[in-house]
C-alpha cells in the first residue's frame, strides 16, 4: 500500500489558521537576529570566544590533542567539530581554526599549526587535508578544570552529546586576543592586549574593586598590543576615553627606521605594519600611487621581507626630508590605519552590552571565582566519597579474617557485612570490588595516611568556601601563575606595540610634498573662466577665449602653490595649483569650482605668499590692510573679507610695500598718507581712505616715501616725484586731496 498523501482533516478549511504576515515576519527576523547575536557574532565576556572557536578548542581537547601530544590532520578536527558540535559548513570551521593558528592574527595563538596556515600578505591557508594542528598552552589554560564541573554543559544540536556553555577561562582571552564580528544591528571590535598587563590590572581590581579606567590605563594597560607590532600615536586622554566608554579607536602607524647608505644617501626600512593590513596589498597601493605621480618624494619601493617584514622605501633624492616623506605616506596609504574599538560582548553569556575596560575585567574575575567555587565543591564531594570508602577499608583491615570468611561462605555477603560491621552500601561495594590480594595487603598505616591527608584537604576547601577573602586570594594566585607564564621577559610575553606622539610636521609642507612641483601659468578670463597652462608663458597674446570674453589676469605659478581669487563682493577663494583644469580649451568656469555668487565677478587672482599683506579698497574709497594668511579659505564657500553692499563693491587689492599709500580718485585728485593710519583687520568695512563728492577710487599705489612716487604713462615713460615734490599731496587719510601732478596718465591709474 502506498502512503496516504491527503491532508489531515476532512478536506475543509478548519485546520488552516490565518496568520498576520507582518507579525510572522517580525517574529522570524527577531529570532534570526537573536540567534546571530547569541550564537555566532558576539564573544562571551568570560572566555572571549564565539561558539565556533569554543567548539573547536573543546573538540581538540576531547580528541586528546594536548600541547605535548602528536599533531592531527585539520580535516579530522573539522570533521569532529562539524559532526558533533557545529552543524555548519566545513570551510567556515576550517577558516576559524586557521585564524586561531595565525600568529599575525592572534596575539596568543590557541592552535599550534603545522603546515601552510596563510601569511601576512593575505594568502589563504592550504587545504585542511594538508595541514595539521594541536592545542597550545593558552587553550589548555582556557580548558583548565572543565572535567571538574567548572562550567555548565548543554545538549548539542542533535542531543547526542553535550558541550560547554562557556570555558573555565583561566587566561584573559577576550582582551588578550581581541575579537571582531558583525551581528544584526550590532558589531564588536576589540583589539588584542598584553597578557602580563591584563593580569596586573586584574590583580589590582581584586584589591580595589572600585578602581577606575583612568587608574588601570595609567598604571597597567597603556593600550592595545597588536600581534604585528606598530606604533600607537593616540594621546593618553583619548585612549582613556575609548576604554571608559567602550567605543573609540586607535591610530596605528608602521614602524620605520633610516638606513644610512653613505655619502649622504639613505633609505627608509619599514619593519612593522599596522594590524590587519595585508602587506602585498599595501605595496600594490603604494606602487599605484607612484605610477599616478601622487608620491613625488618617493623614487621606488621594494619588498625584501622573508620571515620578518622588511619593506624598503627609496627617496627621490638625498635632500628629501624623511619625516615629511613618511608623513605624506601615512596620509595616503595604509601605513597608518585606525583600529576601531567597540567592546560589545555577551555579558554573562546572555546580554549584549558595550562594556568599559574595568567592567570586562571584573566579569572575567567573577567568572574565575565562580569556576573556583564549582571546582572546590566538586573536589569536596570527591573527597567525602573517598573518605567514606577509606573508613570502610579501615574496618575491613581491622577485621580482615572475618571479612574474608564472610565473602567466602555467604551467598549474599553484602547485607551480612553491612549488618555485622555497620558499613554503608558504598563501603561494602568498594570492599567487594577489591581483589582479594589487595584486601590481604591492606595496611592500616597507608589508609590512615591517605585519610588524614584528605581530611586536611577537606578542611582547607571548607574554609575556602566559607571565606570570600580566601577565594579572591586563590584567584589572585592563579592569575599570578598565568602572569609568570606570559611575563614580558619571555619571547611570547614581550610588548610588541609601542607608543609615540606623531611628529610635529608642517601640514603645508606635507601637503606640498604630496604634489609634484611643476611650473604652470594661471589664466583667468574676464567672465571668470580659469585654466593652467604647462610651463611659464610670458607672451599671453596668443591665448584664445570664448566669444565676448578676454584676458583678466595671467601669472606664473607652481602646482604646489595656493591660488587666491578675490571677487568684487569682497570674498576670497582658494584653489590648489594642482587642482586647476588643464590648458586645453578654455578651462572651466570658477563658479563650478567654488560657490561664487552670480552678481559677483573676479577682481583679481594671484599666488599666495603667507608673509605678505594686502591693502583692500572698495569703490567708495573705504579700505583696510589684511594679512594674506587671512585670505586663505578652506571651503568651497570661500571667506568674506570686505563687507560691501550694492552699489558699492571691492575695487582694488594692492600689495603692501613701503610706508605710504597714494590714492587717486576718479575725480583725478590724489592724496598721500602714511600706511600706519590704515588699520590691519581680517574682516570689515574698512576706514575712509579718500573723500569724494562724486565718483570713487581709481587707483592706489603703496611706496616708500624716501624713494619717491613712480608712475608710467601710456607711452611707457616713467615719472618719479621725490618727497619734496610730493609735499602738497601729503596729508592724512580721508582727505579730499589735490589735483594729480602734471604728466599723470589720463586713465587715472599709476600704470598708464
Automatic annotation (TrEMBL):
It catalyses: ATP-dependent breakage, passage and rejoining of double-stranded DNA. GO terms for biological process: chromosome segregation; DNA topological change. It is a peripheral membrane protein. It is found in: Cell membrane. Keywords: Cell membrane, DNA-binding, Isomerase, Membrane, Topoisomerase. It comes from the Bacteria. Heterotetramer composed of ParC and ParE. This is DNA topoisomerase 4 subunit A.
Amino acid at each position: 500500500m502506498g502512503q496516504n498523501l491527503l491532508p489531515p482533516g476532512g478536506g475543509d478549511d478548519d485546520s488552516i489558521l490565518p496568520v498576520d504576515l507582518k507579525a510572522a515576519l517580525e517574529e522570524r527576523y527577531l529570532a534570526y537576529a537573536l540567534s546571530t547575536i547569541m550564537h555566532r557574532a558576539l564573544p562571551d565576556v568570560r572566555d572571549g570566544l564565539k561558539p565556533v572557536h569554543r567548539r573547536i578548542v573543546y573538540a581538540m581537547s576531547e580528541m586528546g590533542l594536548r600541547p605535548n601530544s602528536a599533531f592531527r590532520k585539520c580535516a579530522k578536527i573539522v570533521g569532529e567539530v562539524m559532526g558533533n558540535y557545529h552543524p555548519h559548513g566545513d570551510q567556515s570551521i576550517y577558516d576559524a581554526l586557521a585564524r586561531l593558528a595565525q600568529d599575525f592574527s592572534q596575539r596568543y595563538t590557541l592552535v599550534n599549526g603545522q603546515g601552510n596556515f596563510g601569511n601576512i600578505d593575505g594568502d589563504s591557508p592550504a587545504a585542511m587535508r594538508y595541514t595539521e594542528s594541536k592545542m597550545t598552552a593558552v587553550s589548555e589554560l582556557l580548558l583548565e578544570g572543565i572535567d571538574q564541573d567548572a562550567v555548565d554543559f548543554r545538549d548539542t544540536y542533535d542531543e547526542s552529546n553535550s558541550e560547554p556553555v562557556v570555558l573555565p577561562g583561566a587566561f584573559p582571552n577576550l582582551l588578550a586576543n581581541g575579537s571582531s564580528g558583525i551581528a544584526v544591528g550590532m558589531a564588536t571590535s576589540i583589539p588584542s592586549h598584553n597578557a602580563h598587563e591584563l593580569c596586573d590590572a586584574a590583580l589590582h581590581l581584586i584589591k580595589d574593586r572600585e578602581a577606575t579606567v583612568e587608574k588601570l590605563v595609567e598604571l597597567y594597560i597603556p593600550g592595545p598590543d597588536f600581534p604585528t607590532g606598530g606604533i600607537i600615536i593616540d594621546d593618553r586622554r583619548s585612549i582613556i576615553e575609548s576604554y571608559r566608554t567602550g567605543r573609540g579607536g586607535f591610530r596605528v602607524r608602521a614602524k620605520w627606521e633610516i638606513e644610512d647608505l653613505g655619502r649622504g644617501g639613505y633609505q627608509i626600512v619599514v619593519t612593522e605594519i599596522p594590524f590587519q593590513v595585508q602587506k602585498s596589498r599595501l605595496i600594490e597601493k603604494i606602487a599605484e600611487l607612484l605610477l599616478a605621480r601622487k608620491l613625488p618624494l618617493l623614487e621606488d619601493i621594494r619588498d625584501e621581507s622573508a620571515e620578518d617584514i622588511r619593506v624598503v622605501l627609496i627617496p627621490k633624492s638625498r635632500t628629501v626630508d624623511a619625516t615629511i616623506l613618511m608623513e605624506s605616506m601615512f596620509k595616503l596609504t595604509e601605513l597608518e590605519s585606525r583600529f576601531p574599538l567597540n567592546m560589545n560582548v555577551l555579558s554573562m553569556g546572555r546580554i549584549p552590552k558595550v562594556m568599559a575596560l574595568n567592567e570586562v575585567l571584573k566579569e572575567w574575575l567573577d567568572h574565575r571565582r565562580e569556576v573556583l567555587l564549582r571546582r572546590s565543591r566538586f573536589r569536596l564531594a570527591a573527597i567525602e566519597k573517598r573518605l567514606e570508602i577509606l573508613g570502610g577499608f579501615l574496618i575491613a583491615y581491622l577485621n580482615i579474617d572475618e571479612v574474608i570468611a564472610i565473602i567466602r561462605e555467604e551467598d549474599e555477603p553484602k547485607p551480612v557485612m553491612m549488618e555485622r560491621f555497620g558499613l554503608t552500601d558504598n563501603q561494602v561495594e568498594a570492599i567487594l570490588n577489591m581483589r582479594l590480594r589487595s584486601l590481604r595487603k591492606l595496611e592500616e598505616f597507608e589508609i590512615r595516611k591517605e585519610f588524614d591527608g584528605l581530611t586536611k584537604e577537606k578542611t582547607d576547601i571548607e574554609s575556602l568556601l566559607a571565606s570570600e577573602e580566601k577565594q579572591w586570594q586563590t584567584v589572585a594566585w592563579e592569575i599570578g601563575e598565568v602572569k609568570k607564564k606570559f611575563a614580558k621577559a619571555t619571547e611570547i610575553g614581550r610588548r610588541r606595540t609601542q607608543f609615540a606622539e606623531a611628529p610635529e610636521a608642517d601640514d603645508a609642507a606635507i601637503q606640498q610634498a604630496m604634489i609634484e612641483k611643476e611650473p604652470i601659468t594661471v589664466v583667468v578670463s574676464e567672465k571668470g573662466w580659469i585654466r593652467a597652462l604647462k610651463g611659464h608663458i610670458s607672451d599671453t597674446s596668443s591665448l584664445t577665449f570664448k566669444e565676448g570674453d578676454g584676458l583678466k589676469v595671467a601669472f606664473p605659478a607652481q602646482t604646489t602653490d595656493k591660488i587666491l581669487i578675490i571677487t568684487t563682493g569682497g570674498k576670497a577663494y582658494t584653489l590648489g595649483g594642482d587642482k586647476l583644469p588643464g590648458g586645453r580649451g578654455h578651462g572651466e568656469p570658477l563658479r563650478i569650482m567654488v560657490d561664487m555668487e552670480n552678481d559677483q565677478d573676479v577682481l583679481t587672482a594671484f599666488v599666495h605668499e603667507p608673509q605678505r599683506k594686502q591693502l583692500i579698497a572698495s569703490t567708495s574709497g573705504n579700505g583696510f590692510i589684511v594679512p594674506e594668511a587671512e585670505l586663505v579659505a578652506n571651503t568651497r564657500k570661500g571667506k568674506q573679507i570686505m563687507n560691501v553692499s550694492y552699489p558699492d563693491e571691492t575695487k582694488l587689492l594692492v600689495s603692501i610695500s613701503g610706508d605710504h599709500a597714494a590714492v587717486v580718485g576718479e575725480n583725478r585728485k590724489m592724496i598721500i598718507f602714511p600706511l600706519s593710519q590704515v588699520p590691519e583687520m581680517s574682516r570689515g568695512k574698512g576706514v575712509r581712505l579718500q573723500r569724494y563728492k562724486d565718483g570713487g577710487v581709481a587707483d592706489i599705489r603703496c611706496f616708500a616715501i624716501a624713494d619717491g612716487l613712480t608712475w608710467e604713462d601710456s607711452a611707457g615713460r616713467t615719472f618719479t616725484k621725490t618727497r619734496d615734490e610730493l609735499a602738497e599731496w601729503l596729508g592724512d587719510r580721508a582727505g579730499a586731496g589735490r589735483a594729480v601732478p602734471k604728466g599723470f596718465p589720463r586713465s587715472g591709474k599709476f600704470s598708464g
